[in-house]
Amino acid sequence: MHCAAMAAPHPETWIRITPEGLYCEPGDFHIDPARPVPRAIISHGHSDHARPDHGAVLATPETLAIMTARLGEGRAGLQQQSIAYHQPLMQNGVRVTLVPAGHVLGSAQVVMEWQGSRLVVSGDYKREPDPTCLPFEPIPCDVFVTEATFALPVFRHPPIGHEIARLLDSVALFPDRAHLVGCYALGKCQRVIAALREAGFDRPLYLHGAQASMCRLYERFGVALGELRPVPRPAKRGETVLPGQIVLAPPSAESNPWARRLADPVTAVASGWMRVRQRAKARGVELPLVISDHADWDDLLATCAEVDAPEVWVTHGREEALIHALDGRGVRGRALHLVGREEDEGGDPEPAADTAEGEEAA
Q1: Positions of the region Disordered (predicted)?
Q2: Sheet holding 287-289, edge to edge
Q3: Of 103, 115, 179, 304, which is most buried, counting CB atoms within 10 Å of its CB?
Q4: Residue 181: what pLDDT?
Q5: What is the DSSP string of 77-97?
């Protein structure tokens, strides 16, 4: 555990909750604020963490690029400062360091140290391998702030390779049907593509227009995704396209008229929520793929043990269950009840440009 001096202030005395979110008082900045603030540190580019119109914004170079791509030039913050992972920065006496969170490209944990006390805000994170972003790094601390999206024992994510094998088996079984995989444009889409490539799928993959720009951004930062093509329009009215092919699109695309161009599509959704059969059935998902970019129950508990924090603050999900489990391990838990956090997979209600209705030229 982080060995703070006896006189070190407890983080509760210098980190507080405001209507905008978590606020570091001596540093005078917010972390992932829900409303515009003068100074913000942004953990990653999903829209429930990376909101527009702040004064000054600090984030990784990748996150700033994602914010600019999604929000538009200038709306990521009037002043933007990027810092690389493990590059400390002093802000009014508070030492701030960003370390990888393993969630999506550029995602970071915010490590704050002040007068011998260390608090880590993890943002969203996962512990499973993902070649499209750097892996989560556990940082020993006095207080660990964790998400709890899947903080129930029922949520135990299978290896992604298992789910990709199910997808490829279905493609082989139904060669006359397209496979429409619903996945978020930021993070999930690129991870599914990378997993398909790792499984040996070297054919072109087809993208809904909403997915294409973020894939290009990933490739700009050195993430190879292989051959990607736009979904073509049928040559004649009434015809369909792409039998036997895999199409990646926003989760809402399955119910959009856009999907009618595909050859009798098998509908699939890549989400941790697909563990709940009722959710998949209610949405009419034929092929639920349990693929999540968040830590599952076992990984949440393992991570809290690794960081060895005597106190864990819990937000964004099933707070009570995780706090109860931590209490049984001698760790004090506290529910933060932050406002403005979505509970959908990824915590990312896609911006209009990323939805099926906001389709770019496909």
Answers
A1: 339-362
A2: 228-230, 205-207, 246-249, 179-182, 266-270, 287-289
A3: 103
A4: 98
A5: -SEEEE--TT--EEETTEEEE
- Pair 46, 111 in one domain: yes
Would you say residue 1 lies in a domain?
Answer: no
Nearest alpha carbon to residue 211 among 247, 254, 246:
247
Contact 313, 336 (CB under 8 A): yes
Distance CA 52, CA 57 (A): 10
pLDDT tens for 211-225 read: 999 999 999 999 999
> Residue 279 contacts by C-beta under 8 Å, 6 or more apart in sequence?
273
Question: Does 236 fall in a domain?
Answer: yes
pLDDT above 80 (res 352): no
CA distance 271 to 284: 14
Is it the case that residue 8 has pLDDT exceeding 90? Answer: no
265 shares its domain with 300: no
Q: Does 61 reside within a domain?
A: yes
The total of structural domains in the chain comes to 2
167 and 278 together in one domain: yes
316 sits in which H/E element: strand 311-317
Query: What's the Rg (C-alpha) of the chain?
Result: 21
Structural domain containing residue 72: 13-154+293-347
Residue 121 near residue 109 (C-beta atoms within 8 A): yes
| Beta carbons of 206 and 263 less than 8 angstroms apart | no
pLDDT of residue 349: 43
Q: 227-284: per-residue pLDDT in tens?
A: 999 999 999 988 999 999 999 999 988 878 899 999 999 999 999 999 998 888 888 8
In order, the DSSP letters of 210-232 are HHHHHHHHHHHTT-----EEEPP
60-109 pLDDT, tens digit each: 999 999 999 999 887 888 799 999 999 999 999 999 999 999 999 999 99
Do 269 and 139 lie in one domain? The reply is no
